[in-house]
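Teaching soon. Invent one.


***
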Amino acid sequence: MGLMALNVSARLGDTERQCVERYGSALSTPVMTLSSLMEGADRLAVYEYQGFKIRVAFMGGQVVRQSYQRIKPVDGSLKLTESEIAAILDAERGEGQWVRTSGGVFGGLISPGRAWERSTDKATAHCVTGITLTLDTPAAKEREAAFRREQKEGRSRPVPKF
């Protein structure tokens, strides 16, 4: 089923409650499948909706990064179609427009794939391999960069006294 048929999706800035209202409860998912979405997030969740896995990172109670990926191949491929990518970006445009860029830095790595930037708030979208479309806010990128600096400097969270 193509994503064009969808009229709802998670939105950057949504609350966890809004995500649950759209998709139902988050799946019970091992941490390993979530950890690569965003280092330093307050909470990570995975939802399944109309043939898509939607991974979401929350900070301060709001969605700051999310990724869309097919659960099963369509016509033998897991790659997102152009119409699916366009539908996701359209649902996420808010008051702005997505402008195609030449790539960028995502997760600390230079992204050779397709990338877009939202005109209103500099949120970004990346589709590196064609299989996953990831959207994130400037706050997500800032928090992840701070988390990496803390890790590099050897700072860690205090260990509770059990």
Summary: The radius of gyration is 16 Å. Residues 3-151 form one domain. Residues 138-152 form the longest helix (15 residues). The helical segments are 16-23, 31-35, 82-91, 138-152.
